[in-house]
Amino acid sequence: MGGRLQRGKNYARSGQVLNMTLSTSVVVGLVQGSREEPYRARIGIKAFTSQQWAHIERELAGQALYAAKLLAGEMPTDLEEVFAELGLELFPSTMRELTMDCTCPDWEIPCKHLAATCYLLAESFDEDPFQILAWRGRRREELLDRLRASRGTQQVIPEETSEEAPLSDHLHDFWTSPSPAGTPESATSGTPVLDELEPLPLKVNGTAVTDLLRPAYRAFTG
Question: Matching Pfam families, A to Z (predicted)?
Fold first, then answer.
């Protein structure tokens, strides 16, 4: 194929590929040959199924580094490893994985028109690696939207942190409570715990136990 590939490269360099479109599974190039009407060169590949893409997206979303790079618009250099772990190949490894045809009279596959289209296709992958994913069935925005949705369901909600000062900073007023505006003076006597309890029925020498404990509480909080 050396001669045809070199002629195809020359076609690509001289701008004879007038147009190239990429969609799911199919790349079509319009290549100007020796005739007035350009030839249509078509390169096909099998797209991944919806189920396969679901596995791919779940794997990508579960790996923070891959997801972060993709969501930032970068293509991880070792992305093929993710596909390999799932038993898939991102790039075709043999010609048998591709289907090619051209409207030119040359019966050889690939002809120089197909070769020229292949060269431009490879350059488009260098310029925008997301194109290879689109060729396999998942366009960039659709993939990123699905990754965002998957990452959103896996986000860990941070625990609420209290802004209150640690207990060690409140040792001096641990036994007291704040005095809101309008609180009666009797409620700020330094014995709020005793005031909140039901009166104790016990008495010592005719004096209620609560009243006997009050000086001790005042001493603690003083």
Answer: SWIM
